[in-house]
Amino acid sequence: MGVLHGSSVLYYAKGLQIKDVVAIAKGLAADRGMATPTIDVDCSNVCFKVGKNVQHLANFLMRWSDPGLCITPVCDNTIRPISKQATNKRKADRERNRIKASILRKDIRELRRRFYEEPNNRQAIQEEISKKEKACKTAETAAANSIQSNMKDKLVVELERSSANKKNNAGGFVAEVLVAEFQADALMMGRSISQSTLMVMSSDADIPIVAGDQCLVIRSSQEMGESN
Predict the structure, then answer these.
(1) SS3 per-residue string spanning the chain
(2) Contacts (Cβ under 8 Å, ≥6 apart) of 106
(3) β-strands 70-75, 199-201 pairing
(4) DSSP character at residue 35
(5) Per residue in 21-60, is it b (16+ CB within 10 Å) or e — as a string?
(6) Closest residue by Cα to residue 51 from 223, 175, 224, 222
(7) Distance separating alpha carbons of residues 152 and 47, to the nearest angstrom
(8) Which residue from 154, 187, 222 is spatially nearest to 200, judged by alpha carbons?
(9) 68/47 Cα distance (integer angstroms)
(10) How far apart are the C-alpha atoms of 101 and 116, rounded to whole Å?
(11) Which contiguous run of DSSP H or E holds residue 177?
């Protein structure tokens, strides 16, 4: 995947709230004879926004099902095309950031010790601590910038424990977790074209371009999910 300058050929509706998306979904569902408005969610893509913790992802999915939507989680397969597999360079970068974070944490501990032993230099030391803490957090994030290979299995268990697959008072629920042959976006595009789903939740601009005009994509799901 990868359409050059793909986002420049798309139309956007900004400032929508969840209630607006729900209204649009219910209208489309009525037109298409779909019992429960269905939205597919690219789990790997959304994880980078809501956090790679499975509990956070499950809570996010359930929150979107609350207004009466069927939310379908779609996961990448553990087997990926060679072109999409992590390169040696990226693996080396993650390891380098892990080592960098470890060194920075050691520096921070030493600076905190000096902070109490050198009262005349506390302001300068505190500034250095803040600077290194920010760099350490960045390095830690980069070092952990990957999705767990068993995310699908953990998500299934978490959803079952939370009774997310049962219909709530509004008739919404989280559907069975789907696993693509390779990548989630290809499966979601097929489901959009066959009208098995009304919308797709992903920041991938290629999806509506390839799937066509009937494919509606929710790109800023985190902001709507959190603030409205």
Answers:
(1) CCCCCHHHHCCCCCCCCHHHHHHHHHHHHHHHCCCCCEEEEEHHHHHHHHCCCHHHHHHHHHHHHCCCCEEEEEECCCCCCHHHCCCHHHHHHHHHHHHHHHHHHHHHHHHHHHHHHCHHHHHHHHHHHHHHHHHHHHHHHHHCCCCCCCHHHHHHHHHHHCCCCCCCCCCCEECCCEECCCCHHHHHHHHHHCCCCCEEECCCCHHHHHHCCCCEEECCHHHHHHHC
(2) none
(3) unpaired
(4) S
(5) bbebbbebbeeeebebbbbbbbbbbbbebbeeebeebbbb
(6) 222
(7) 12
(8) 187
(9) 22
(10) 23
(11) none
pLDDT 10s per residue in the chain (228 long)? 455 555 566 666 778 888 999 999 999 999 999 999 999 999 988 887 776 678 889 999 999 999 999 999 999 887 655 545 555 566 677 788 889 989 999 999 999 889 889 989 999 999 999 999 999 988 877 776 566 668 889 999 999 999 999 999 999 999 999 999 888 888 999 999 999 999 999 887 778 777 777 788 888 665 444 433
Per-residue tokens: 56: 């956070």
Helix axes 184-193, 43-50, angle to 10 degrees: 120
Q: The tokens of 30 are what?
A: 């009525």
The identity of residue 105, as a single letter, is R
Q: Distance (Å, rounded) from C-alpha 189 to C-alpha 181?
A: 13
Q: Residue length, the chain?
A: 228
